[in-house]
Amino acid sequence: MPRVYNCRLDGSLEFAMKHFTPKEAHQFLVQNPLALFVDVRSEMEFLFVGHPVGAIMIPWNDGPDWDVNPHFVAHVKKAASVDRPIVLICRSGNRSKDAGLALEQAGFTEVFNVLHGFEGELDDQHRRGTQAGWRFDGLPWEQC
To answer: What is the pTM of this model?
Structure first.
């Protein structure tokens, strides 16, 4: 069962974005085939680091300046209605959380963030993928 964290934006709105571990997210996606799985990482990360099988890429921000994508919400709205479940993943779970808050502000009602993301947090040797994450958990992924 997903954990629910209440997040406040601008002190007035409260949202209840749900957070999954990678294994919980995979199970949810298998059980809910109409859910949209969005990888919010950059195009280079998606293509060359790899991505979960079945995820579509809609970057939250991208190079060269790493500004927030002003069309992110509009692109998600083209792919899904506001009441369709949206599962978001990034490298370690931070960008996807920010993207999820933007979707909730735009009226999306079922937004899920994947904790630890695709690669997980840095370990003591400053490497990713050794402690947690979609790939670490052995879930389906591919590279282009």
So the answer is: 0.88
- Report how far apart, in Å, the C-alpha atoms of 82 and of each of 30, 52, 77, 79 are: 20, 23, 7, 10
Residue 13: its H or E element: strand 13-15
Name the DSSP class of 67: E
Give residue 18's pLDDT band: very low, low, confident or very high (50, 70, 90).
Answer: very high
Give the residue extent of every domain in the chain. 3-142
Residue 87: closest CA among 118, 62, 63 = 118
**Strand residues in 33-140 grouped as ranges (E):** 36-39, 51-52, 56-57, 61-62, 67-68, 86-89, 111-114
Note whether 35 and 87 are within 8 A (CB). Answer: yes
Q: Which of the four pLDDT bands, split at 50, 70 and 90, describes residue 142?
A: very high
Q: Are 20 and 111 within 8 A, CB to CB?
A: no
CATH architecture for the domain at 3-142: 3-Layer(aba) Sandwich (3.40)
